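Changelog note: in this version the structure field was regenerated for every chain. One regenerated record is shown below for reference.
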Amino acid sequence: MDQYGSDFITITDEDGAEYELEVLSTLEYEGNTYLAVIPAAEEQDSLQLEVSILKSVEEDGEPLLCTVEDEAELESVYNLVMDSLYEDEDV
């Protein structure tokens, strides 16, 4: 899914602060699109990555990324994302 361009996206929160995020994975689940993202930083300790799951929704015809509020939905998507990320690694 390339509608967000490269593997990096910039989001703006409610307070107008901008954050650059790296997209690790995109997942379709139950008719919705989810993105697994981490903060984009020049140097990262791979053991300390904080993966966030964002849900792609449309509001007034504009694509919008929001947090997943439902705990069960978040857990299901998080597990699917982690499985897909780790199956790509040669273990």
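Spot check on this record: The two ends are 26 Å apart (CA to CA). Residues 1-5 have pLDDT under 50 and may be disordered.
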